[in-house]
Q: What sequence folds into this?
């Protein structure tokens, strides 16, 4: 995963990330409150995490088709190809056997409507996180080369209200989601975190799981539950940063530290390469080489921190 | 045929009615070849009922069922034919449809004795109290109804009333001297009283030279009295005498499985299955045995642990610790040293545990003891906060020790009562709670006299009586310990071991008539619970108002009224308790200290909601009470041990308190739970190992952390510190 992350960190730092957070109709006051609270928490977390981030949130009665279309029209003018774009959908979704719909006040937005809106955004790197019920049915219409589609359910037949959104948002603030500890939570890490927590939720409640999240980022598949970049799925997601914190951002901006940073990235790539060779290596030799690389990497990081 | 029906075979005079009387008389005397010829001849008869009986006698059950359907159509007004069909269905594992046929027969002829006996048998299968009334009605309709008499004998013995069992069996024998089933009851009474019933065996074998069921009936009663090893011994004798008793082989298999002898169990169950005995228990048990590969058998010194692969790594240390603590406590208190290891099996799927115990799903219990084997739900089998696994483990291990002390000879009420009471001795926060059901039973004077208390466990007469009986038995032991000292309980146990009855033991040890014990106990209990009993109706009303105030956000009202409501029924710690509402109101008004104190009260009263206990731990920690925070989290280990976050937080606190070894255990649990953040789990374990001066392990884990996350700065720093 790191090999792709290294590529990510080398991206032009002036690129911005645009977020659109939509919380649809709850139907009941409990759901209304929950969806709206999740949407605003997501907005708060994203705003507080990285450099150039733009977040637009429409929740509850404000999330009408008209206002959503107006928002996308505005963004279509502002977002550049080198920027990243994230659409987070929270709420209820339906599937009638033919068409997925995102439930909002007034006429709902279908999967096709959403795809058309997204296609107007020129950002080449796009992420759609559809956390609604029946969201699995939206994969086919939303997928596209360069676009990551994450859904809370594996199909349109999983129609119960979901909890995936709760854990997806938790991933934006829980350092535990940053499993490779590079101070960046990628879309893949957040997906894995939220999927695992969702599964645990149902296990601990002794309830049959009624949602099975999917990730699709090849532009042609139906989505997978356990993406593996080394096998082709999850590569884009691994290289899509959601939140960054701490030194990663600062170091990239300091010319005096560029050499150290380059050495750091070289060591990280060597470690990645060594890990891929692990199965074919003598374990003592693997350990010896890994230890040496890790110690050196630790020292370089120490220098970077001074 | 189920274990209960083992008693009643084809040989009753009732069954003599109908076309197969002669054939069954031959079978009754063990003249099997002649009986088979006789049944074969019936199959060739033009009458559908005769054909049905013949096919049934030949073991061709499906065809027999079809013929009975025709027979009933041919004889729409004949209750006897319907009763016989019902008996076939009852024997072939379909009590529901059997009962319908018996009811139809009763509509055709009011008080048909055969139909009443059929319904009594169905009810007796489920240990329902109404079985006794039905059998008595059958006898009133036909005083010569031997089956009803034998059934009454059997139920009396199930209730522990050997005197009545003997009386009823003797009356059956007086009416029909060849009543094999009555002889089996008489023999069972002898075995239960540790005498060899040679005369009864001789008498039965004189009628039927291969009457293996006499052993099977005895085995069943020994098993009901927790004497599984003795039961297995008799089941073996039964199949030695008549190897084709497939239902008995199934029972033998189930009981071998209970004792943890899975390989032997599988052999017997497969034999039964392959020979057409495929009742639900046999099939379920074989399926469960097939799932053995999902479990690990772990040698833990004095214990053999059978844990599911997916949870063995993190669960083992906690189970081992509690089991060791419980066994040491009980061996010391009861003066027993177990020679063999105790087998402890934990099932993450409750239905697997139920099948392991009964052969059938749907068991309400949490744990069961089979001599030196304990089977119970794993903590993950139930929703977090709803199951105190350590309390159950202590309860079951108490059975192991107590029953070993008296070679399994003690009444159920005493054995259960001791175990319930011992849970509260381990910690006052453990044990049975005073639920509204129990309060209602005490208020309505539904507690049973001590001499009849076993009946509350075996044959409950109202819903919830089993739970009430556990509570009563536990309180009775508490009362005895408080008035006469623990030694009195020990002396009672010894006396029970000498096969004395409850009235005898009460008179001998407590120097009281049992009725006087009942009176004094009731008075003590009333005194102990007076406030709750009297305040209960008021509490319900005020609790409703308190909940409304909490919902409406009227925090001042909750804070003003809450303490008084809580104190009316302080044992109530279920969802929405006054403790919870008060803590919420205190937090909403910013009074964290009051919230902390309230949640402490909640925990001490036995509250187990994981969210509230976590909240307590955080309030303790943020107010600088790290020890108390650890205590709060340790409570969670007993009700929600599969929560990674609890172990991690506990590890952090223990490390801060300098208890590195304990912290290592918690961080190991985090790692074994398959955390999403593997790197952090290894890193924290590395920190704890370093604090415990286990430097090599610390280095291993910090490297593992960095292998997962090479850029993990805290781990990098630790690696440099650990690198010379």
A:
């Amino acid at each position: 995963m790191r090999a792709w992350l290294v590529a990510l960190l080398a991206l032009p730092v002036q690129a911005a990330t645009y977020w659109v957070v939509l919380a649809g109709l709850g139907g009941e006051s409990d759901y209304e409150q929950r969806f709206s609270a999740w949407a605003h928490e997501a907005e708060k977390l994203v705003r507080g995490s990285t450099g150039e981030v733009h977040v637009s949130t429409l929740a509850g009665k404000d999330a009408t088709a008209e206002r959503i279309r107006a928002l996308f029209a505005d963004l279509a003018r502002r977002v550049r190809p080198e920027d990243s774009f994230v659409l987070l959908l929270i709420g209820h979704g339906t599937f009638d056997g033919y068409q997925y719909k995102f439930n909002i006040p007034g006429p709902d937005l279908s999967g096709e409507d959403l795809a058309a809106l997204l296609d107007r955004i020129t950002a080449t790197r796009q992420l759609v996180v559809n956390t609604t019920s029946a969201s699995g049915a939206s994969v086919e219409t939303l997928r596209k080369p360069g676009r990551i589609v994450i859904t809370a359910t594996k199909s349109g037949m999983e129609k119960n209200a979901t909890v995936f959104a709760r854990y997806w948002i938790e991933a934006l603030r829980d350092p535990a989601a940053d499993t490779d500890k590079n101070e960046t939570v990628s879309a893949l890490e957040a997906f894995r975190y939220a999927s695992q927590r969702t599964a645990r939720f149902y296990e601990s409640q002794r309830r049959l799981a009624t949602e099975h999240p999917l990730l699709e980022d090849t532009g042609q598949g139906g989505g997978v539950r356990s993406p593996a970049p080394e096998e082709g799925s999850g590569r884009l997601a691994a290289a899509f940063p959601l939140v960054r914190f701490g030194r990663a951002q600062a170091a990239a901006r300091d010319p005096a530290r560029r050499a150290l940073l380059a050495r750091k990235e070289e060591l990280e790539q060597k470690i990645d390469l060594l890990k891929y060779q692990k199965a074919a290596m003598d374990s003592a030799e693997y350990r010896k080489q890994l230890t040496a690389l890790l110690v050196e990497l630790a020292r370089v990081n120490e220098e970077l921190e001074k | 045929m189920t274990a209960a029906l083992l008693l009643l075979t084809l040989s009753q005079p009732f069954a003599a009615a109908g076309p197969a009387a002669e054939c069954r008389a031959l079978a009754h005397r063990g003249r099997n070849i002649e009986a088979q010829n006789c049944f074969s001849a019936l199959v060739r008869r033009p009458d559908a009922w005769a054909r049905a009986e013949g096919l049934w006698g030949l073991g061709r059950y499906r065809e027999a069922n079809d013929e009975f359907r025709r027979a009933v159509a041919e004889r729409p007004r004949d209750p006897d034919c319907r009763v016989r069909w019902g008996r076939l269905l009852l024997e072939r594992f379909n009590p529901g449809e059997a009962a319908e046929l018996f009811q139809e027969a009763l509509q055709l002829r009011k008080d048909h004795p055969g139909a009443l006996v059929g319904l009594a048998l169905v009810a007796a299968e489920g240990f329902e109290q109404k079985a006794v009334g039905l059998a008595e009605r059958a006898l009133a309709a036909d005083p010569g109804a031997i089956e009803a008499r034998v059934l009454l004998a059997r139920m009396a013995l199930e209730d522990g009333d050997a005197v009545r069992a003997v009386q009823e069996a003797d009356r059956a024998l007086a009416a029909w001297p060849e009543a094999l089933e009555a002889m089996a009851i008489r023999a069972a009474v002898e075995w239960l009283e540790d005498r060899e019933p040679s005369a009864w065996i001789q008498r039965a074998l004189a009628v039927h030279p291969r009457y293996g069921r006499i052993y099977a009936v005895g085995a069943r009663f020994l098993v009901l009295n927790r004497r599984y090893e003795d039961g297995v011994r008799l089941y073996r004798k039964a199949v030695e005498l008549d190897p084709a008793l497939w239902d008995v082989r199934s029972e033998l298999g189930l009981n071998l499985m209970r004792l943890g002898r899975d390989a032997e169990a599988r052999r017997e169950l497969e034999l039964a299955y392959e020979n057409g005995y495929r009742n639900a228990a046999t099939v379920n048990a074989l399926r469960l045995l097939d799932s053995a590969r999902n479990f690990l058998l772990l040698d833990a010194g004095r214990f053999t642990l059978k844990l599911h692969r997916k949870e063995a790594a993190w669960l083992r240390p906690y189970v081992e610790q509690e089991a060791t603590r419980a066994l040491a406590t009980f061996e010391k208190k009861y003066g027993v040293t177990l020679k063999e290891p105790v087998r402890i099996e934990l099932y993450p799927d409750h239905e697997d545990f139920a099948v392991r115990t009964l052969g059938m799903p749907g068991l309400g219990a949490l744990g069961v003891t089979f001599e030196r084997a304990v089977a119970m739900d794993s903590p993950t089998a139930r929703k977090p906060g709803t199951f105190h696994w350590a309390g159950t483990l202590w309860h079951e291990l108490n059975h192991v020790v107590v029953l070993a002390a008296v070679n399994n000879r003690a009444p159920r009420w005493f054995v259960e009562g001791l175990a319930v009471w011992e849970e509260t001795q381990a910690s006052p926060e453990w044990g049975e709670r005073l639920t509204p059901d129990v309060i209602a039973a005490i208020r309505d004077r539904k507690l049973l006299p001590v001499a009849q208390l076993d009946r509350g466990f075996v044959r409950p007469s109202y819903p919830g009586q089993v739970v009430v009986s556990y509570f009563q038995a536990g309180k009775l032991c508490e009362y005895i310990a408080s008035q006469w000292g623990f030694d009195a309980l020990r002396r009672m146990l010894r006396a029970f071991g000498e096969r004395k009855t409850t009235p005898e033991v009460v008179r001998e040890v407590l120097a009281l008539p049992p009725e006087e014990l009942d009176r004094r106990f009731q008075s003590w209990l009333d005194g102990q619970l007076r406030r709750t009993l009297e305040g209960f109706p008021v509490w319900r009303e005020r609790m409703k108002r308190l909940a409304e105030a909490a919902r409406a956000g009227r925090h001042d009202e909750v804070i003003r009224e809450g303490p008084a409501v809580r104190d009316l029924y302080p044992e109530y710690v279920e969802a929405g308790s006054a403790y919870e509402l008060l803590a919420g109101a205190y937090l909403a008004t910013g009074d964290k200290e009051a919230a902390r104190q309230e949640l402490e009260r909640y925990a001490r009263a036995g509250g187990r909601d994981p969210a509230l206990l976590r909240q307590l731990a955080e309030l303790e920690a943020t107010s600088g009470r790290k020890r108390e925070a650890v205590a709060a989290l340790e409570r969670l280990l007993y009700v929600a041990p599969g929560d990674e976050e609890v172990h991690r937080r506990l590890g952090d606190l223990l490390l801060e308190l300098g208890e590195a070894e304990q912290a290592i255990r918690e961080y190991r649990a985090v790692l074994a739970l398959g955390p999403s953040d593997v790197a952090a789990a290894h890193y924290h374990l590395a920190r704890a190992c370093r604090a415990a001066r286990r430097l090599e392990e610390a280095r291993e884990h910090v490297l593992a952390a960095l292998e997962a996350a090479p850029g993990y700065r805290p781990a990098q720093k630790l690696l440099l510190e650990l690198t010379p």
Q: What stands out?
A: Chain B touches chain A through 29 residues (CB under 8 Å). Residues 406-512 of chain B form one domain.
